[in-house]
Amino acid sequence: MTRVLIVDDEPQLLRALRINLQARQYEVVTAADGTAALAAAAADRPDLVVLDLGLPDLDGVEVLRKLRTWTPVPVVVLSGRLGSAEKVAALDAGADDYVTKPFAMDELLARLRAVTRRRSSPDERLVVRIGEYDVDLTARDARHARTGERRHLTRTEWKILDLLARSPGKLIGHRQLLQEVWGPTYLGQTHYLRQYLAQLRRKLESDPARPRHLLTEPAMGYRFQP
Prior knowledge:
Helix content is 39%, strand content 21%. It is α/β, with parallel strands linked by helices. It has two domains: 3-116, Response regulator (Rossmann fold, 3-Layer(aba) Sandwich), CATH 3.40.50; 127-224, Arc Repressor Mutant, subunit A (Orthogonal Bundle), CATH 1.10.10.10. The two termini are 25 Å apart.
């Protein structure tokens, strides 16, 4: 059974989330502030954390930073803050995904399933389908599923695709992609990402203008949707 820690200072929301998650066979632990959240994370070792940013004692981003000093547990951030700066700050602090209040329960549950999905190890052969292409990330080989025609991708395109596809459903922030593909001196060059994602869509998506797999989250990053 997956154990989830829910951190929020709204009692009604805590209750609603507890009921919905327990009905879907999650084990639920709750905390109403940041201090209690850190203590619960250490004591109960959850498999997943749902974290509100607007807490009464510690800011949620600070809680996230403290968690990331000792645990890689997946964290989905909840917040009524609509500005993209807060979302980016949460992603940079180590959030795996972000849901804005008010939210549909089905959306939140889908995000939780995505971030807890087993991640492939780097040594495990991983093949994903994008449009009409079977993409072998381990062998770096992309072939048309019907004709076997090979699609050439550049070294940089493979790096980006590997980061996205190995975490299906997860939002990968601009800064993380730029850091891991180009390095720390390129953190402001988001136009690089727009250019390379456009190239990947033209090569792999059935309809590049309406991508189904390589998705943009405006002002935040990109997501691979299987």
